[in-house]
Structures are given as structure tokens and as C-alpha cells.
Amino acid sequence: MNFGVMIEALPDLIGGLWLTLGLVALALVLGFVIALPTALARLSRWAPLRLVAWAYVFFFRGTPLLVQIFLIYYGLSQFEGIRASFLWTILREPFWCTLIAQALNTGAYTAEVFRGGILSVAHNQIEAARAVGMSPATTFRRIIWPQTIKQALPAYGNEMILMVKASSLASTVTLMDITGVARTLAAETYMPIEIYTMAGAIYLALTFAMSQIIHMLEWKMDVTRARK
Amino acid sequence: MFNLEGFGHLLLQGTLMTIQLALVSLAFGLAFGLIGATMKLSRFGILRLLAGIYTALIRGIPELMVILFVYYGGVILLNNFAGWLGYDGYIDVSAFGAGVAALSLTFGAYATEIFRSAIRTVPTNQIEAARAIGMSPVTTFRRILLPQIWRFALPGLGNTFLIILKETALVSVIGLEELMRKTDIAVGYTKEPFTFFMFAALIYLAMTAFVMAVQQRLEKRANRGVAGRVMP
């Protein structure tokens, strides 16, 4: 082990960390925005809506993220119409393509997590809420959602950590995230063990920090704590 | 709908390679998982610690990073080790070997946790009873533990295999000619990225759907005799 190389690589790898963090944060927000309507659509009374949501979830959970990134980044350039349109300013950038793919991917997984959470809410609570005159929207906001998110948090937290790990695929479309920087440095220095160990340590710290935050949130949301 | 322009056989070869990679990784991964779970439930603190480090590392580091480390770093480590043993030739690591190592280590880490919690669902008095009537530890494991562990572990193992199946695509990064790499080659010739990547996506979709169907049948079979009872 050459520790000098490891220390020297650190500033560059930290530079990649910001891209990783930005990508994950944006993908999580977008994924959340996609997931909630998808979960509701999956539970809708309207069959076409259920079918569309099901197909979306099935496709994005059933194919590798790498294919999804390549489909958006390389695939869409096949169409003259897209290259001529204003969308091209976004879709020719590897960053936005990776972000879109990651958001759609995590959105599909998170939708299933939320769906499970919504289904866990006892049906008589919803009937009771309606009986006292709550509108469907208020019922969702006051009765269903607080219990959904509490029930779904462990699985959602897991998904967040998987998201951090999945962001390393950004390096396959030339982005300089932690993995991208590490791959470049490893090729330049011929010291893959040192460089990848250092990069792995950064990921480990990142995923550990995230799991701690999630544990804290779970602890805060556990309303039965005081009674125990 | 899809005009593959004569690249169909190329994609088929890639698909077969992907299946091979996934199945070999599954076999090694199951072995790693059983070893890991046994270590985690061991009386010896050092074994528990080692297994803990193993699962923590694999679960906290991206699979792509593990693949890169095993492929580029593994060659160096292996040759240093061989040199230390007195072998002075050069050992090469194939992309397939590195892929199997990385994917089975990943599968093994998740399987360790799955097996561990499955083993703990079997009441210890069953094991004591088996030993009391004179079963050897091996027979106890095979006749008493394994059928019950299998039932509890199947859902988790199936899901983990689905993850591994999709992660085989990452091994294309180190040049293994599996489905993604072959698709990439076809794209290079035809300049039709959407057609080919979409076709590859549908092949992956068909494979995951097949695995899910098999998983369902196995679960049904493993749960025969306990139907209707609520699973813990």
C-alpha cells in the first residue's frame, strides 16, 4: 500500500463527492415527486391509470439502471425530432440524462414502498375519517400519509442508500463523480488498489452517515416510544 | 417492430453469457451466504467480527466499485500473493472471473443476513430434540434446519437474485461480452442506439419476469403443508 498516493487522491475524490451528492439529492427529490402519484395511481379505481402505473414500475424495476441511462443518453439521440427540439439542450448533457434515469428508477422502487405503506393503513380508520366528514384530500393528509411514511421509512431509507450506490453508474457516461474520478486516477497512477480503497472508504462514510440519519428519523417518528 | 439488421445472434450470445454469469454467481453467492450466516451465529467473536466487516463493506460500497476493485486490484493482489508463495509466472484475471467474484460476494453479503434471520426463526428446542434422539449435527442441519430455513429465506433470496441479474450489466464496464457489451457493439455498427438498447431492456425484462415466476412456484412448493397459516 502506498499511503502517499491515497492522501494525494483525496482532494480529487472529494471533488467528485459533490457531484455524487448533487445527483443523489436531486434524484431523491424528483423520485419522491414521481413515486407518490404513481403509488396512488397503482391503487386507483380507474383501470387504465392502474395499468400505466404498473407498466412504468414493471419496466424500471425489471431492467438494469445502466440500460435506462444508456437508453436516455445514447438512445434518444436516434430521433431527429428530439435532436431538433428544445429538449436537446437537456438531453445531450450526461448529467441531466443520468439524473432523469436515476429519478425514474428510484421513483418506481419508491412507489412500491409507498404503496405498501398506504395499504398498511387500517381501512376502518379511513371509513371513520369519512364518517366524520373529512374530504378525501384531508383524509390522505391527516390520516393516511402520516402512517404511510412511518411504515415505509425503513424501506425508503434502504432505497436512499441504494441510490447513493447506484449513482456510481454516472461514471459510465463520462461524469466525474467519485467513481469517475477514481477510475481516471487509477488509470493515471497505475495504483488501482490504493485509489479504489480510498474511494470505497468515501462511499462507506457516505452510506453510513445516511443510515444514521434514517435511524434518527425512525426514532423521532416512533410515537410509541414514550409509552414503552 | 425491431429490425435487428442481422445482429440478433450477437445479442443471443450476450444473453447466454449474462445468464451464465448470473447462475455461477448465484451458486457461489449461496455458499458465501451460508458461510457468512454460520460465522455470524458462531460462538467465536473473531468469526462474528469478520462476517460483520464483510457484510458492512459490501452493503456500503457501490457494486461497480467492487467490480473495478476486483478486476484491476485483484490482479495485483493475486500476483503479489503468488509471488510470495514462490510462483514467478503471471496470473491473469478474466473479466468473467472478476464478475463472478464481485457479484457472488455481493449476493453472499445479502444472503448472509437472509440466512441468519431464517436460521433464528427455527426454535432451538427442535435442534435439541433432534440431537436428543441421536441425529448428528449434519443430519440435523439437513433434515430439520434446511427445509425450514429454505421456506423463510426464499423470498429474500429471490429478490437478491433479481438484483444480481440486473447488476450483471455492470460487468460490461470491464469488457465482458455479455448482453450490454454486445448491444453496445451492435449500436456501434448500426447507429441505432434506441432500437438496440430498448431491445436489450426487453430481454432483461423477460429474464426478470421469468425469475419472478420461478420464485413464485418455488415459494408455493416450499410452503406446501403450511398453506393458510400466517407467515411471521
Describe the 3D structure.
The complex is a heterodimer of chains A (about 230) and B (about 230). Chain A has about 230 residues and is an all-alpha fold. Chain A has one domain: Orthogonal Bundle (MetI-like fold), CATH 1.10.3720. Helices cover about 80% and strands about 0% of the residues of chain A. Chain A is built from ten helices and no strands. Chain A is flat, with a radius of gyration of 21 Å. The mean pLDDT of chain B is about 90. The longest helix of chain B is centred in the first third of the chain and has 33 residues. Chain B has eight helices and no strands. By secondary structure, chain B is mostly helical. Chain B has a domain of about 160 residues: MetI-like fold (Orthogonal Bundle). Chain B is flat and about 70 Å long. At the A-B interface, helix 2, helix 3, helix 8, helix 9 and helix 10 of A face helix 2, helix 3 and helix 8 of B.
Output mean pLDDT of chain A.
92
How many helices of chain B does DSSP assign? 8
CATH superfamily of the domain at 22-177 in chain B: MetI-like
Low-pLDDT parts of chain B are none
- Helix-strand topology string of chain B: HHHHHHHH
Largest sheet of chain A: none
Task: Return the CATH topology of chain A.
Answer: MetI-like fold
Indicate the CATH topology of the domain at 22-177 in chain B: MetI-like fold
| CATH C-level label of the domain at 22-177 in chain B | Mainly Alpha
Keywords:
A: 228 residues, mainly alpha, MetI-like fold, B: 232 residues, 8 helices
Write the layout of secondary structure elements.
The complex is a heterodimer of chains A (228) and B (232).
Chain A lengths: L2 H40 L4 H16 L2 H9 L6 H5 L3 H4 L2 H26 L3 H9 L4 H31 L11 H12 L2 H30 L7
Chain B lengths: L7 H33 L4 H16 L2 H22 L10 H26 L3 H9 L4 H31 L11 H12 L2 H30 L10
Helix pairs in contact in B: 1-2, 1-4, 1-7, 2-4, 3-4, 4-6, 5-6, 6-8, 7-8
Brief sketch in words of this structure:
The complex is a heterodimer of chains A (228) and B (232). Chain A has 228 residues and is mainly alpha-helical.
